[in-house]
């Protein structure tokens, strides 16, 4: 679970990327974080994962405060960043062994997990190549495998489907569903609204650092008195309203 309480973050004293966000992400759910480019999704995720400190507010991950208990908190989740261009000079397998080492995955479990996940994402043959030679999608898969090696209860994925081929994307969605159905948690950001509509138990729509809506897709339909797609509601919700604050349309739903 993740509890985000009144969290704000401003870059360089100017851009308020996250503006007083409060969110609860529960065990057993796939939670989708949606919003236009620059809305504050990645910044929120960086705050949740302890990469950035918040200016205000508090974040608790699986019962552990990410600021005061960062190492213990970090052990409980796997994180896929928005950019998979990591450790390019390492070979794929070296990277995965490194990740397993950091998270303290024992040797035999490590081998089994690497083998199983690489097979699932059809990356086994590339593991002896340098990451530099990987395509974007291959790097994405590698980072994903690395994040899941220690079997974390909580998955935090920043646009994990980007660059994945349909088969791998399907694999990931299936794994996300199974993970949540086992009582564990997936928090991910995406621009792919079809995916969000199909796989998410709940979504939050963020724009200009604020939550415009948080709930199930059905709740969103009821709120908008709409029978339309998530895409049409998303476009309506995030339509430019002449710079007025997003809070106006919040309707108390966040
Ligand atoms: N390192 C940074 N320094 C200064 N401003 C930043 C930095 N990172 C992000 N921002 C700004 O913060 C705001 C939120 O950016 P963020 O990356 O969180 O958005 P996002 O919702 O993840 O967007 P996208 O969908 O494009 O990934 C934007 O206005 C962006 O320009
Ligand atoms: Mg982003």
Task: Please tell me about this protein's structure.
The chain is an alpha/beta fold. It has a domain at 83-152. Helix content is 36%, strand content 24%. A hairpin with a 3-residue loop joins strand 1 (2-11) and strand 2. Helix 3 runs parallel beside helix 5 (136-148). The longest helix is centred in the last third of the chain and has 16 residues, at 166-181. Mean pLDDT is 93; it is low at 241-254. The protein binds adenosine-5'-triphosphate (ATP) and magnesium ion (MG).
Features:
six-stranded mixed sheet, binds adenosine-5'-triphosphate, single chain, binds magnesium ion, four-stranded antiparallel sheet, 254 residues, 10 strands, alpha/beta, 36% helix
How would the blueprint of this fold be written?
Blueprint: E1 2-11, E2 15-25, E3 30-34, H1 41-48, E4 56-61, E5 64-65, H2 70-75, E6 77-80, H3 92-102, H4 107-120, H5 136-148, E7 154-158, H6 166-181, E8 185-189, H7 193-199, E9 202-207, E10 210-215, H8 217-224, H9 230-237
Parallel strand pairs: 3-8, 3-9, 6-7, 7-8
Antiparallel strand pairs: 1-2, 1-4, 4-5, 9-10
Bound molecules: adenosine-5'-triphosphate and magnesium ion.
